[in-house]
Amino acid sequence: MKQWESIRVLLLICLLASAFLSPSPVRSQLPPPPPPPLPDPEILRQVLGEHFHLPLATIRNLERDVPFPDLNLPVALFIAQRAHVSVDLLFSWRREGLSWLLIAERLRLPATIFFVPIPEGRVGPPYGRAYGYYWKHKRDKRVRIFLADQEIADLVHLRISSSYFGLPPTRIIALRAEGKRFLHIYGQEYRKRHGGKAVAQPRGEKARPGEKGAPGKGMGKGKGQR
Prior knowledge:
Elements: H1 2-21, H2 25-28, H3 40-51, H4 56-63, H5 69-83, H6 87-95, H7 100-106, H8 128-139, H9 149-165, H10 169-177, H11 182-194
Helix pairs in contact: 3-4, 3-11, 5-9, 9-11
């Protein structure tokens, strides 16, 4: 009798274990887990593609043609859009050793294009020196604005991020004064709005690929080429 009781208990345990380990119909129908959030560098590519109306594949290809793309590519796309020239032309001038300020001057673009107007006052790093020149130039056009490549990169990122995320420029300036890198700001703000997922619907301003002024590779000469 005890032997039969032991066998029945053992069979019951086996049945319960089999039911637990075998995939249930409900469990097998569950959707796959969501993909992990985009990393900050990929979010920057996403923002640049939307802002300048360029495919992500084009952004990735352009990154391979310029050193430190997180600093230099946004500047190249911005200047190319404003001057209606190709990014390739700007990259060739960079390889000749020209600064971004000299390239803008060669294309007859004023240094003021890099600035987002903000109320005059005390501005912390990395913008204090640049805005000091900007406000002096506004009061006296004879004052020339001197900008290093890093300052121009910071200013262009300020324009793009404030436009894309709809944030006051002073808020982004405050984040930068706290030591926040732009990659972190893009990632943080993008995930707040999109949960870190890529956005399929393009956004941005001005020319689209194939239209006059679109800053893609291989465009015509445009004004200012020498």
